Amino acid sequence: MKSEYHVLHLRSSAGLYGAEYVILGLLPELAQRGIDSTLLCLDNQYLDEQPLYTRARALGLPAERLPCRGRFDFATVAALRERLRTHPKPLLHVHDYKSALTAWLARGRAHVPIVATSHGQFSSTTWLHLYHLLELSMMRRFERVCIVSAEMRPLLSRAGVREANIVLIENGIDTRRFSPGAPPLARRDFDIDDGSFVFGAAMRLTEQKNPLGLIEAFARVAEATPRAMLAIAGDGPLREAVKVRAAELGLSNRLRLIGARDDLERFYTMLDAFVLPSLYEGLPLALLEAMAAGRPIVATDVGEVGAVLDGSEGTLVPPADCVALARAMQRAMTRTQSGDALRARVVERYSVQRMADDYAAVYQDVWGRHARIAA
To answer: Which of 95, 88, 90 is closest to 22 using CA atoms?
Structure first.
């Protein structure tokens, strides 16, 4: 049954990362449930291209660009108000602090419900810290705040968000796309011998994801095991630092930086083991994708990672402990692991279908309450 409401998803994006892929996976699933959505992409003035908008359009998803010329732009608010006027019963779903502020100002005194998803409060600069404080303040005024990991709940509660308005909705992935049956990338295309044991990571090359820590750990593994190789999919500001450190450690011929890719399902099946070395996380999609592909897992115990792997064959190590990470990687080379249980866990709990069901339930609840108040 088709809903009479229309969901406007707002996202200010610097590229295609975890939150972006969550949104791209969510919209078509909502459509199958009778919920029409439009993705409104706030322009990033630092980018010539707008990757989220471009990718959404390539996938055939309804998407529009909103002008945004700086940290804050009243033209963005005006453009969103115009979009609200074109939909008789809109609901705003915001996915970051800039979108939250824009939605709050655009709503004004209009009775437009706002749902927020907190994909993670990671403040790496003073400005980001201030923005997130502002976002927390606004969330007290939103109809629902969805979190991707349970550890986010205390922060929101301390900020004054009502407990009844906080909803845990864990990220979900397309388990049909990410599967052990996906044809692997050809190792020869990356100058990797078939007899190599390939560790892999899919990450943005930033301090949070800790690629330099992974290089330090891999150096210990490579010294002990000549056939070990490391492949990293992704890009970011630490790319050059990773190359330099790998060269200093004599790893240049053992490391493959293959850049950002849109065929990660094939990257995972090329690997012998997946490594997640992050210093902090919410619920990382890369972990779920590698599990769905049936790869053995070595990961730092951050965010929801421990809960996801609890009771499984996946190996947890403390964050920022390169020695422990190296030891776990070496053990992964000698252990015989079946990925069936890891995949089964993702299919049961972390599918995009389950995620869409959860968001649809939130929307229906908000719309129901909104209709009763307006009556």
So the answer is: 95
